[in-house]
Amino acid sequence: MGVRIPNSELVKRVVFYTMKRRGMVHTQEELAELVQKELKKLNKNFSITPQRSRKIALQINNMEITVKTKKSKKSRPKKCPVCGNKLKSIYGKNLLDKRITVGFRCKICGYHANEKFFAPMKYEFKLLKR
Ligand SMILES: [Zn+2]
After folding, report:
1. pTM beyond 0.90, yes or no
2. Is 2 among the domain residues?
3. Domain annotation covers residue 57
4. Centroid of ligand 1 to alpha carbon of 87 (angstroms)
5. By the 8 A CB rule, do 43 and 1 touch?
6. How many C-beta atoms surround the C-beta of residue 27 within 10 A?
7. Neighbours of 116 (CB within 10 A)
């Protein structure tokens, strides 16, 4: 029995349908589980990872994703830990009027953190109603 990877459009539709029914999902693992269950109704070999379902969920309009973070000793990430895009530095001035990096943000998904890197811990998904 092989594993089949569902295409993004299909996953997007399933994520949307799932979110419409649930309204809110508290972790990407939970989201993947729900999406997987729906996908298996279509093809029992369909498989999806939590990371992929999160990335596809990001592409849906009206989807609000909240990132719960925790302090980390790791240095700042090169890529956005949420969507994998490039991060932009946010500059500020210190007391001596020198330009310093105070944090960074992602233009794509809005993830941001201050210079003390906060690692994403938990993703919360919410479908906004128009
Ligand atoms: Zn991002």
Report:
1. no
2. no
3. yes
4. 7
5. no
6. 16
7. 10
Distance (angstroms) between ligand 1 centre and the Cα of 121 equals 15
Neighbours of 38 (CB within 10 A): 18
Q: Which residues contact 125 (CB under 8 A, 6 or more apart)?
A: 19, 24, 25, 26, 28, 31, 57, 63, 64, 65
Residue 3 lies in a domain: no
Residue 26 CA, ligand 1 centroid: distance in Å:
19
Q: Tell me: the pLDDT tens digits for 68-108?
A: 776 655 666 778 888 889 988 877 776 666 777 778 888 88
Token digits of residue 48:
């999806």
Provide the domain count of the chain: 1
Ligand 1 is a single-atom ion; what residues have CB below 5 A from it? 80, 82-83, 85, 106, 108-109, 111
Q: Which structural domain, as residue segments, surrounds residue 63?
A: 8-127
**Which residue matches tokens 């279509």?**
42
